[in-house]
Amino acid sequence: xxxxxxxxxxxxAMVMLGFASCSTTNAVAKSEMAxxxxxxxxxxxxxxxxxxxxxxxxxxxxxxxxYSLAINGDSIQSHLPYFGKAYSxxxxxxxxxxxxxxxTDYTLNFNPKGTAEIKLLARSQDDTFRYHILISEDGNASxxxxxxxxxxxxxxxxxxxx
Length: 162
Description:
eight-stranded antiparallel barrel; 45% strand
């Protein structure tokens, strides 16, 4: 009987130590991921894969194709779908939110929780766009885009290495 109790006590102790080491490993992995994300943002070298869009009119939509927003140094590569009202656009619809251009007026701030807030301005051939990007420590991102000639639109996704 004592042998069984000792055996069960030893097994329970090993299981508890295993859980403790897993939580420590997870905490270290999360910390490393947060630092990697912060470094990429500070170096202006990151990509956000967009999974959902939030037009001003109509409901949110899940995206089935690959859409993204990439910042590489002083340039932006916007490959985003657009749904909404356009007030003044070129015949045929223009480029919309699919363009590559210099990113100007770039500002970056981190709040106390570690969320990055990025604001930038980009001019395509058709329009001027203001991007407001929030990226959390775990890589979740939200993007708000306003322009001179279209209704604002929002997106959500996940940051990936460029």
